[in-house]
């Protein structure tokens, strides 16, 4: 079997806070004006990605892993995570503020939901002037202060708000309270999990006048009440794989591609490329495939020596 770079049908999610930038900015085939998320590569139950190119077209990720576990995942991935695909990749468009929320760690998520926890990172791709995110507490807090301000609907007053620009990166460990603000498009890399504890939603109602479910009791034990240093500084040397995040669940590098980059990857793990700017080609063996901003590409573990050509900004993610 000849393996090759894989792309997938986007799994599009309507959200109360979503908009149209996934179409106008990233060319996704959205069906509504309130589309908040494009799940680019997922094995979350009931949302398993399907291949859209090549001989594996129409097969889903889990089927490919079952057929070719070592070729797709690689030995290191299997040793660390078994044959479950460990990561979830998304693009998000926040037309409105997202809810204030957090995610449980592995231990709590396993006990309560039989799931992975949700460590994640954001890369800011587009931002309207003055747009902000919430990330952690402004000062060290405690359950009593948190509950008091939550009850007063004044929680934002004790949280850290950061005005963002294109290229900003935030690494969110489990327990970090956070919210993406209106006017931001991000690329998100996270553990394979859809467990979110929503603690405040600005009393927002959907089209039927119904408020979204909150998880205030579940959140109390999961919150990290200490301040966090979530914003990440990193290098941007051209035609180099510059490290941004290296954690227990994933490693993310950034490649500012200019013209040609001869790139070698290990055969022990898969790699995913997310194009956040520009366009590029992948040359492997005798084939050339072309990609643009908003494309997400899975390079199976068995692929190694690859030539990248073009002018683009690429997030390179592995385990």
UniProtKB/TrEMBL annotation:
<feature type="domain" description="Phosphomannose isomerase type I catalytic">
    <location>
        <begin position="9"/>
        <end position="115"/>
    </location>
</feature>
<dbReference type="InterPro" id="IPR014628">
    <property type="entry name" value="Man6P_isomerase_Firm_short"/>
</dbReference>
<dbReference type="GO" id="GO:0016853">
    <property type="term" value="F:isomerase activity"/>
</dbReference>
<keyword id="KW-0413">Isomerase</keyword>
<feature type="domain" description="Mannose-6-phosphate isomerase cupin">
    <location>
        <begin position="244"/>
        <end position="315"/>
    </location>
</feature>
<protein>
    <recommendedName>
        <fullName>Phosphohexomutase</fullName>
    </recommendedName>
</protein>
<dbReference type="InterPro" id="IPR014710">
    <property type="entry name" value="RmlC-like_jellyroll"/>
</dbReference>
<keyword id="KW-0479">Metal-binding</keyword>
<dbReference type="Pfam" id="PF20511">
    <property type="entry name" value="PMI_typeI_cat"/>
</dbReference>
<dbReference type="InterPro" id="IPR049071">
    <property type="entry name" value="MPI_cupin_dom"/>
</dbReference>
<keyword id="KW-0862">Zinc</keyword>
<dbReference type="Pfam" id="PF21621">
    <property type="entry name" value="MPI_cupin_dom"/>
</dbReference>
<dbReference type="InterPro" id="IPR051804">
    <property type="entry name" value="Carb_Metab_Reg_Kinase/Isom"/>
</dbReference>
<dbReference type="InterPro" id="IPR011051">
    <property type="entry name" value="RmlC_Cupin_sf"/>
</dbReference>
<dbReference type="InterPro" id="IPR046457">
    <property type="entry name" value="PMI_typeI_cat"/>
</dbReference>
């Amino acid at each position: 079997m000849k393996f090759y770079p894989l792309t997938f049908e986007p799994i599009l999610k309507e959200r109360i806070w979503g908009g149209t930038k996934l179409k106008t900015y990233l060319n996704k085939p959205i069906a509504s004006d309130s589309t908040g998320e494009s799940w680019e590569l997922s094995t979350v139950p009931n949302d398993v990605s399907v291949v859209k190119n090549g001989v594996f077209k129409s097969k889903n990720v889990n089927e490919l892993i079952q057929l070719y576990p070592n070729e797709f995942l690689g030995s290191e991935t299997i040793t660390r995570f078994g044959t479950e695909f460990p990561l979830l990749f998304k693009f998000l468009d926040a037309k409105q503020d997202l809810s204030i929320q957090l995610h449980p760690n592995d231990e709590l998520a396993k006990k309560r939901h039989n799931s992975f926890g949700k460590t994640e990172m954001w890369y800011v791709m587009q931002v309207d002037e003055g747009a902000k995110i919430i990330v952690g507490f402004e000062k060290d807090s405690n359950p009593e202060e948190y509950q008091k301000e939550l009850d007063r609907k004044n929680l934002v007053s004790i949280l850290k708000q950061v005005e963002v620009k294109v290229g900003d990166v935030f690494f969110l460990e489990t327990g970090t309270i956070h919210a993406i603000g209106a006017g931001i498009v991000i690329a998100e890399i996270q553990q394979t999990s859809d467990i979110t504890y929503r603690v405040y939603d600005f009393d927002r109602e959907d089209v039927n006048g119904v408020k979204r479910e909150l998880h205030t009791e579940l959140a109390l034990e999961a919150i990290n009440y200490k301040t966090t240093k979530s914003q990440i500084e990193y290098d941007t040397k051209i035609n180099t794989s510059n490290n941004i995040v290296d954690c227990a669940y994933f490693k993310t590098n950034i490649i500012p591609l200019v013209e040609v980059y001869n790139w070698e990857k290990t055969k022990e793990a898969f790699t995913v490329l997310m194009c956040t700017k520009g366009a590029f080609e992948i040359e492997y063996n005798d084939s050339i495939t072309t990609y643009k901003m908003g494309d997400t590409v899975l390079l199976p573990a068995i692929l190694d020596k690859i030539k990248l050509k073009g002018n683009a900004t690429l997030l390179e993610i592995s385990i």
